[in-house]
Design brief:
The chain is an alpha/beta fold. The longest helix has 18 residues.
Length: about 350
Amino acid sequence: MLSRFACFLLLVTGSLFARAAGPDIEIVTGESEGARFSIAAPAKPEARTGLVLVFCHGYRPEGGELLDGLLPLKSASAHLVEKGWVVASTSYRRNGLIVADALRDVKNLRAEIARRFGEPRRLILHGESMGGAIATLLVEREPKLFAGAVVVGAALQIEEGGKALAFSHAPGGPLIFLCNRSETKASREYIEAARSAPTAPVLLTVDRDGHVNVNQREIEAALAALNQWLEGGPAPKPADATLPPDPRPSAMDAIGGGGGSARLTQLNPLFGNITLDFQASDFAQLGVKPGATFQLKFGKMSVPVKLGQTYTDVPSGAWVAFFDAEDRLLVAINRGNAAAALGAQEGDLLRVENLP
């Protein structure tokens, strides 16, 4: 089964969606064959370049709400819109392990973009986890529609309907596999099988464990390398693509006595994981070391949380926290719902105290 980190997405309400866009961005939302989509484009037609990026999301549990998860635009996508790109994302017509129908949903989104904004001069894909497998299949099967892709933590060994995905290993355009160091095996195997293809794929590795545990600077750099390749430049060399996240000042309010508080900035409605605006340097200041347990407080709730590296560092039902690729603190209950247990919402102030 795919890691929950692959499903940690920015899923927002319509009001946040509108506020994130701003006056210079046109927002289009809709539905096609049951799949919900969102499209962000420069508001002025003359500012549009005909270049398009479509995001393919990863696995989501069955039964949840269908959400495309495009906005607020992450920085890598926002920078493209500023340069004249159209950026879009679609849910699939249902959640779960869905590939065959998802291929059609992404193609439907492409047709919608062409109808509203004109036939793309170039359309590339950014897929994560299961979405990476979907993007890979589209570049293999529909190279005239999809020029290339950056696939992050691609889940290339999943099955649908009891059958393994059938890859041709003959992509019709450039593919860049962006992988955490702990999960390069499947991508290396695909690249080896495709070594004789006219356009052989390339592996970029992020020196960080996890699944889809990459930051926006790393994604933006991979997308830039893909576009340079498509514009006739050389294929990127296999390399360490690790970059530090964009720096930001500390948002922690030090309370004294080994304590500090910060806002809840993101809430994952699928799993209830929360992200707090603490940085690793904040915890160093508080004296909370990796592997230690700290106290997390909100309202009348106070829970012990282990500072680990991934969900499975604690038993089922226990609390764990770790710093993600953007250097923000993700807090979760292994196989539980942290937001529901705390009753916390985005914008709430939560407190951390170092245990003696």
